[in-house]
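General statements about sequence and structure are easier to judge against a single worked case. For one protein, we set the task of working out the structure tokens from the amino acid sequence alone. The sequence in question and its structure tokens are set out directly beneath this paragraph.
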Amino acid sequence: MKKYLIQNGGQALAIVADVLQEADLIKARDLIVEKLGRIDGLVNGAGGNMPEGVVQPDADIFSMNIEGMRKVMELNLFGTILPTQIFGAVMVKNGGGSIVNISSVSSKQVITKVLGYSMGKAAVDCYNQWFAVEMANRHGDLIRMNAIMPGFFLTEQNRTLLTEPDGSYTARGKLVIQNTPFKRFGHPEELVGALVFLLSDASKFVTGMQIGVDGGFTVFGGV
């Protein structure tokens, strides 16, 4: 990505940081301001699932791995809140900006197994709306916060759950396709339009919203 941006006339700075470690985030923020001068946008994209947060179909739902659930929820929720606190404060001083959170369709639709992840993303949606209102109450339209809810995109994390080694769909993958009106998985580049819209001035009167990029998954009733 860094190479691509530079080759196309942009500037890029790659920094390794743990989104749950405040010191890492402060160091990253300070380096960005030092090298690039200001911060106008933030994408809270860190997150994901962990095996400890998954509830298998044959598991006892009255003795779930609470610590595992907590870890997944912490990554997704506080991995959104902490960067917002560290980078958002600079954006207010700059005079404005846009924050985009990465949510998930699992925050709106019940998806089996991924309880910890779903609860974490639902909490992100709650924070997304709360922060948008509180920021507006305090600073007017200086800072907007919105979220993108991706549907099913093949990633290294879910590929073996949704596809067989030969590329055909697993039973779970078939269910996803069956319940996605577009009858396919999303392509990564199809997230770009919504992201650019929310980061740019084209969405200056939009805040607290969740935009689904899911091929119709969240609006389909299955019939």
